[in-house]
């Protein structure tokens, strides 16, 4: 921090922050300024440092764009400074996650909750409107062929789970039908942009004062791809009273009053610069792809549980969510 020219002095009010198991978050104050430090877990994984470098680059690129996100203060890509860990400092987010808690006025006002849902789509459209090249993210991902490789990429991932001892293979009704439908209906027109990669309510922080999105967080899956997949991801994970997804969305899902899928798409489409060159009429395809991809990702934990590398109860839970996602994908297709 001293080398970056940041104000010096003792570290005060140091405390850990909750928010995921993959990385460590520490909030502190120094010389009257608040910071959040983000680094990998105590036992670093193979790609953790590379992911942290990418996150820092994205947050720096988003500064000045109007996208609600933490702002990068300084990054340390040098692994020797903190015992092998890359880390960065960012601005704190003053807000709450609605899948964990729901304070007033949000809990008691259905109109506020409805607007929270619409603002989830609007915050996403602000990201879709960013010119990634102008923001300094040229070369950050591989947009060429992005849509064409999605189905084969995730079927290969599913096949790889077979290497885990004890995993009997995927028991996912509708898997082949959904994969075939995706290959046959792939959109022919799309425009590359910044893809968050894991856009759902658990990765949003809301203002304590109202329905505004205070920040989109957890950028570890970010790349350059088709931003409409983020919108599809939001639809794939959106709380629905007709299935288990409402309870999985925590207090906000239980409280209800949220907008419909159609209203979310309409809110996203309010920004012409987010939808220009993108085919919103194909949004069902993106929602089905999101169900397909997320379901396969979650099935990986079920496979690891069969191999004794994850708790059995966690594997059972995530397998049930995978089955629910594929049922939702089939409902999207049928509609």
From TrEMBL:
GO molecular function, one term: transferase activity
The keyword Transferase is annotated on this UniProt entry: yes
Pfam families: APH
Signal peptide as annotated in the record: none
Domain Aminoglycoside phosphotransferase: 13-246
Keywords of this entry: Transferase
InterPro entries hit by this protein: ACAD10_11_N, AGP_Transferase, Aminoglycoside_PTrfase, Kinase-like_dom_sf
Protein name according to UniProt: Phosphotransferase family protein
Organism annotation: Actinomadura soli
